[in-house]
């Protein structure tokens, strides 16, 4: 009915009496933080708020610890529903909600599927509009919470003739308190990349006869995510990076093998020859030093000349 509401969020249904694993950090699904999302992961994020680069299945997606597929609400197609979000730290910005008919608790949604079913607001035009005092223009799908930390309730209309045996309802909270560059080239708070929070809930949407479409979700060719500006994130080049890293590792391994081979040849094959050369060099050096330090022998006596006798001497003039 039009009075249906959803307060279960972040796949933490255990807080509302469901038999699911308790998640005590369900308020920390912010894509890993601003730096991790925008610098390391190029704006990408898991559909339910897990960091993009965490191992799959991510904790809050199908197959993960908290992605149990527990259905928490049943809705009638085309009706307006009330969704309540509790903010414990207000970062300005806005909320958006999306649906993806996975129709299988083992199959999680993709952002491409969710982006095809953005819920439209059913609030009064003067509620949840942009601006500190709500002076902005109403937006068809965005709800701008006012100041303060409290529970914000917003109304959204389910698509007409849209049913699903198992739908993933995604909440996206795009914060607006970071300074960045605006589209017109000026800088302002709320422009450029912002911190983002996400959450998921599993619901059923039926027609007036209580029937729901159970067509399985078609496999997506690429598991991509869509940043807040609506432009699909670039495809990951992990394969190219992996080949580059592998090449570097092989080069390092080859260099190490060369060094160890030379050391082996030196110590085990050329060792005797080198040791003999060093021993001969030491002997030659020792002999040269010994020759230099031997004390000199006694001086040679001067030549002795016999003194001539005066007898029989011949005088030559």
Automatic annotation (TrEMBL):
Occurrences of domain Chitin-binding type-4 (ranges): 28-203
Annotated keywords: Membrane, Transmembrane, Transmembrane helix
InterPro entries cross-referenced by the UniProt entry: Cellulose/chitin-bd_N
One of the Pfam families matching this protein, by short name: LPMO_10
Transmembrane segments: 243-267
Keyword Oxidoreductase recorded: no
Basic and acidic residues compositional bias, start-end: 122-140
Domain of life: Eukaryota
Chain segments carrying region Disordered: 122-144, 289-317
PANTHER family: AGAP001705-PA (PTHR21113), CHITIN-BINDING TYPE-4 DOMAIN-CONTAINING PROTEIN (PTHR21113:SF4)
Protein name as annotated: Uncharacterized protein LOC113206834
Gene responsible for this protein: LOC113206834
């Amino acid at each position: 009915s039009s009075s249906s509401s959803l307060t279960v969020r972040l796949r933490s249904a255990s807080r509302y009496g469901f038999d699911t694993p308790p998640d005590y950090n369900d308020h920390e699904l912010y894509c890993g933080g601003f730096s991790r999302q925008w610098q390391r992961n190029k704006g990408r994020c898991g559909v339910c708020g897990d960091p993009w680069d965490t191992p799959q299945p991510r904790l809050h997606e199908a197959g993960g610890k908290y992605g149990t597929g527990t259905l928490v609400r049943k809705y009638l197609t085309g009706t307006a529903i009330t969704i309540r979000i509790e903010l414990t730290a207000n970062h300005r910005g806005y909320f958006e909600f999306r649906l993806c008919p996975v129709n299988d608790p083992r199959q999680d949604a993709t952002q491409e599927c969710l982006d095809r079913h953005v819920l439209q607001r059913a609030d009064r035009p003067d509620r949840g509009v942009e601006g500190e005092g709500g002076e902005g223009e109403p937006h068809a799908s965005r709800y701008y919470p006012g100041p303060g930390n409290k529970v914000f309730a917003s109304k959204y209309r389910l698509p007409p003739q849209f049913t699903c045996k198992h739908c993933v309802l995604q909440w996206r909270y795009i914060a607006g308190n970071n300074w960045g560059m605006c589209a017109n080239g000026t800088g302002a708070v709320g422009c450029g990349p912002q911190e983002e929070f996400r959450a998921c809930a599993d619901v059923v949407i039926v027609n007036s006869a209580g029937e729901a479409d159970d067509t399985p979700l078609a496999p997506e060719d690429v598991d991509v995510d869509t940043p807040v500006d609506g432009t699909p994130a670039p495809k990951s080049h992990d394969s190219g990076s992996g080949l580059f890293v592998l090449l570097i590792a092989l080069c390092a391994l080859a260099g190490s093998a060369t060094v160890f081979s030379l050391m082996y040849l030196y110590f085990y094959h050329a060792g005797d020859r080198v040791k003999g050369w060093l021993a001969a060099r030491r002997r030659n050096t020792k002999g040269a030093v010994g020759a230099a330090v031997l004390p000199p022998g006694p001086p040679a006596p001067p030549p002795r000349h016999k003194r001539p006798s005066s007898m029989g001497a011949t005088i030559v003039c």
